[in-house]
Amino acid sequence: xxxxxxxxxxxxxxxxxxxxxxxxxxxxxxxxxxxxxxxxxxxxxxxxxxxxxxxxxxxxxxxxxxxxxxxxxxxxxxxxxxxxxxxxxxxxxxxxxxxxxxxxxxxxxxxxxxxxxxxxxxxxxxxxxxxxxxxxxxxxxxxxxxxxxxxxxxxxxxxxxxxxxxxxxxxxxxxxxxxxxxxxxxxxxxxxxxxxxxxxxxxxxxxxxxxxxxxxxxxxxxxxxxxxxxxxxxxxxxxxxxxxxxxxxxxxxxxxxxxxxxxxxxxxxxxxxxxxxxxxxxxxxxxxxxxxxxxxxxxxxxxxxxxxxxxxxxxxxxxxxxxxxxxxxxxxxxxxxxxxxxxxxxxxxxxxxxxxxxxxxxxxxxxxxxxxxxxxxxxxxxxxxxxxxxxxxxxxxxxxxxxxxxxxxxxxxxxxxxxxx
Length: 421
Description:
Distance between the termini: 25 Å
CATH class of the largest domain: Alpha Beta
Radius of gyration: 25 Å
Shape: elongated
Structural class: alpha/beta
CATH superfamily of the largest domain: CoaB-like
Number of domains: 2
CATH topology of the largest domain: Rossmann fold
CATH architecture of the largest domain: 3-Layer(aba) Sandwich
Number of strands: 22
Strand content: 15-25%
Helix content: 25-40%
Oligomer: single chain
């Protein structure tokens, strides 16, 4: 979950250019500061017409580099800030800035900083539709991508010029999420396809009633967030509407049978590998097929039974009578039904029996043929939906205790431990 991600010790430089969307950069600064990041800001002179440097100084509790503040007596200059930062995020990035960057022009402090910056940059374009879709701008964004300058795609909506079209800057939460994989990227998980299931399955009784459980999907969302941040190519199959996750491929399902069908399809795709992005410095300049062993995280709480005869319309209580016997049939065992050949699998198991919970989890490891079981001991139904958790990770080599923490920290700890199995 994005709101739980901590960026303590991360150094982020935010560039602000002359666009009406500059006001959104204030919220982006707030998100980074709330997450514990160390922030610095560089502004073009035209951006100061929309938001004052004082506003950013107050929000980021930092010095702001612009024409009046550059100094070579300290680190408030375009060379030192580039050396200092782990990531440079330009939001908003005007069409003028994008096209100048592609041509190597550095006629203001922000562009000078960008030209001297040796690491990954993230651009969040904001411009009129005709400007953003002009062939020159489109070509230059593709050129920048070859130099490992990533673009967070603009939105299509009502623009400041009162026209509807592509060009609105991405939301600050989206930019924040996109920056995570450049701050937390891990060689093991990078460009590895991962399928995550989440939420409690929904089995229809009729058109207004269903059988389900208390699963909130929060642990699954935490895993999706951590996997995305580590650089994985994530497919998230869920019964719940995602609340706070990065931009990954999401498939909405309801029943256990739907989850089985779509998870099998997702694993089939995952086994094919990932096409890498071409690099400006590569000899062939062609994408490369990367094959890494895919992973499946079976985090969903799958119902054991479903109604034998789901009804169309609404069943009337007058017709049902004083008592109602609902006939149920067993759902498929998804882990047993899936073709998991060549896939590493983590099963999640919730238990309420403190004496035999570990034994049940160890039995699952063997009976389901998985690589690890994440055991979650619950007290009662109120344990569902909490923001914290504690996990016992069980593998063939033993147990790893991951103590109580927020669910996103738990997810990061799990991914670190799983690399060695």
